[in-house]
């Protein structure tokens, strides 16, 4: 039986509402926390809790099964597909996270940073580099409020302050003033914790939950995801920050591939994502976080399954074009290798490969590579000039 929100129970049978809450709150399967949740504009606050349910267990099982399938799939695909898929996932993850927050960014500007073609001072460079750090397994400290502030300074503070100086942090660790989350009509729907002493106290409890070993990893990650948004420790950039933190811990618990499509899935189901927060904040739901955790787990399961689907599609695309390439029956080994490299560049690198990169990949002399390139019909090549260098790739119309 699906776990219904207390609000839904109230709408269906107001007389059964109070008994339902007491039964859930006092259930042997309930886990309680010393954190009060209060809806903006309402008088009462309620202690946060959740119930272990069979649906929760099944969803966690679904996540781990999807991850197992992801491991099997990633082990089968060629390294070039995996490498490009990871880079593309970083780009899409950052773009989607920005879109969720209403922050304008383009794939082109993000790709330039990812490819090392943009200046270090470029907008979003710190965010892109933090996501790239997930690939190297860099450890980031998220054990204290001070550590969280240190991360935020490296991650987004400078760019946010440059865009809007009023959003610069002015407190000891977090914001000194209040902050409201408003609807599209300008109506306040949530007010973050305040004053700063409350922000710090609440965040210390949230971080303790994030690292609580007696709770299953996915459940404490979901709880922290909600609490971070509820506390709203910064004037701006809270959503982007907590989604990165979630990806970071997913990369540590699973692997880098599993951690890079969370925002992509959330963006696709943005309405449901915001509804989960609204329900969890609601006074009538009395701080029952069970529905939020179920929704969070559902996003993770969907994200892992989506990653498997995308990886499989990329591999099939590569195989299809390699099969078309083999039909050209190219006899010269070096020319055949150049065609293969240029095909990969076309499918996965975007701008193509330079002569220097082709020389490096073939371990042949530059003059030899240049002569073979000249044997490829001009109509089969696409050339692009970037920073005085010429990049080559194939025109896929040649296979039509």
Summarize the structure.
The chain is mainly α and 400 residues long.
List the helices and strands and how they pair.
Layout: H1 6-12, H2 14-25, E1 30-38, E2 45-51, H3 54-76, H4 79-101, H5 107-114, H6 125-136, H7 145-163, E3 180-182, E4 188-191, H8 196-210, H9 217-231, H10 238-253, H11 262-268, H12 270-281, H13 290-326, H14 333-349, E5 353-354, H15 355-362, H16 366-374, E6 381-386, E7 389-394
Antiparallel strand pairs: 1-2, 3-4, 5-7, 6-7
Helix pairs in contact: 1-2, 3-13, 4-5, 4-6, 4-11, 8-9, 9-10, 9-13, 11-12, 11-13, 12-13, 13-14
Summary keywords:
mainly alpha, 2 domains, 400 residues, two-stranded antiparallel sheet
Low-pLDDT regions = none
Report the strand count. Answer: 7
Distance between the termini: 53 Å
Helix content class: 55-70%
Largest sheet: 3 strands, antiparallel
Question: How large is the count of helical segments?
Answer: 16
Model description:
The strands form three sheets. The protein has a three-stranded antiparallel β-sheet with strand order 5-7-6. It has a two-stranded antiparallel sheet with strand order 1-2. A two-stranded antiparallel sheet has the order 3-4. The protein is built from 16 helices and seven strands. Helix 4 (about 80-100) packs across helix 5 and helix 4 (about 80-100) runs antiparallel to helix 6 (about 125-135). By secondary structure, the chain is mainly alpha-helical. The chain has two domains: about 5-310, Orthogonal Bundle (Fic-like fold), CATH 1.10.3290.10; about 330-400, Orthogonal Bundle (Arc Repressor Mutant, subunit A), CATH 1.10.10.10. The protein is elongated, with a radius of gyration of 25 Å.
């Amino acid at each position: 039986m699906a776990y219904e929100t207390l609000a839904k129970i109230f709408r269906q049978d107001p007389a059964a509402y109070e008994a339902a809450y007491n039964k859930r709150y006092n259930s042997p399967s309930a886990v309680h926390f010393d954190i009060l949740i209060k809806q903006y504009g309402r008088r009462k606050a309620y202690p946060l809790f959740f119930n272990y349910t069979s649906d929760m267990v099944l969803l966690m099982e679904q996540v781990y099964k999807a991850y197992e399938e992801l491991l099997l799939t990633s082990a089968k695909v060629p390294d070039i597909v995996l490498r490009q898929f990871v880079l593309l996932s970083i780009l899409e993850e950052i773009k989607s996270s920005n879109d969720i927050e209403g922050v304008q960014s383009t794939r082109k500007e993000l790709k330039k940073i990812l490819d090392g073609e943009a200046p270090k001072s470029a907008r979003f460079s710190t965010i892109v580099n933090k996501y790239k750090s997930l690939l190297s397994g860099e450890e980031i400290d998220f054990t204290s409020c001070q550590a969280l502030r240190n991360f935020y300074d490296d991650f987004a503070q400078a760019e946010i302050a440059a865009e809007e100086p009023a959003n610069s942090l002015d407190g000891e660790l977090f914001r000194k003033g209040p902050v409201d989350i408003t609807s599209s009509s300008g109506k306040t729907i949530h007010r973050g914790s305040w004053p700063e002493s409350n922000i710090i106290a609440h965040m210390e409890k949230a971080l303790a939950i994030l690292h609580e070993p007696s709770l299953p990893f996915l459940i404490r990650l979901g709880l922290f995801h909600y609490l971070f948004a509820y506390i709203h420790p910064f004037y701006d950039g809270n959503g982007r920050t907590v989604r990165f933190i979630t990806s970071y811990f997913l990369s540590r618990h699973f692997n880098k591939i599993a951690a890079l499509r969370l925002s992509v899935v959330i963006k696709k189901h943005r309405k449901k994502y915001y509804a989960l927060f609204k329900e969890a904040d609601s006074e009538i739901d009395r701080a029952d976080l069970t529905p939020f955790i179920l929704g969070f787990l559902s996003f993770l399961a969907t994200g892992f399954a989506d990653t498997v689907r995308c990886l499989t599609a990329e591999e099939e695309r590569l195989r299809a074009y390699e099969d078309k390439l083999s039909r050209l029956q190219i006899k010269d080994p070096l020319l055949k290798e150049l065609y293969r490299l240029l095909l990969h560049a076309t499918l996965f690198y975007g701008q193509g490969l330079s002569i220097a990169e082709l020389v490096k990949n073939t371990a042949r002399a530059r003059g030899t590579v240049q002569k073979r390139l000249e044997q490829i019909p001009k109509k089969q090549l696409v050339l692009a000039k970037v920073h005085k260098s010429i990049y080559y790739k194939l025109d896929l119309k040649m296979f039509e």
